[in-house]
Amino acid sequence: MLRFYKTGTADEARDEAKLRKSLGAAGAKLSSLVQERCYMVELTPGTALSGDDESRLLWLIAETFEPEKTARASFLKPGKGATLLEIGPRLTFCTAWCSNAVSICAACGLGQVARIEVSRRYLFAGSPALGAADVARHAAALHDRMTEQIYPTPLESFASDAAAVPTRTIPLMTEGRAALEKLSNELGLGFDEADLVYYTNLFVTELKRDPTDVECFDMAQVPH
Fold it and tell me: Which of 121, 180, 188, 200 is most buried by a 10 A CB count?
């Protein structure tokens, strides 16, 4: 995996404000903060980038009139008392940004690029000193835990060992609406009385089969 680093991005002030607010709520202060973005690039297996290809990719990532703010080496220099925190997309899916970036690379003759994702890296220190639990708590203010995660160490690849939960069949045919009501409470589907009556009738009377939990989850997203 190739890595390119960029400093001085537009959203750094926003992230600093979030971190200061989170620390302040815990009675701490932000002593120092340096930020950067890391562009992680994975190539199609068996391919490589020539010197010209890598220069073209670096030019695409830099995208500004300040090329000195983008480099192959990190701008962060960890020191005593400072914490390095890296947050990026969850590994189980490609982001929409990645899809666009890969298309742009292909249009620029960089068809070897299979995936690009961006992480945010923070080197900061607090007063008083922060422990591991403190860092985890304040990291929650900087990312969306539904779509992002903390990277304890730099990624070596985008491979994930996550496995999909097996689909379950909900026994409406034998247990009736009670089975649907139980699933709604278990997964927080929010089925009301009308939903329970309608979907029980739909599967038991009309379709004459049991639904899966995936179907029920999908039905719960239908606007009323």
Answer: 180
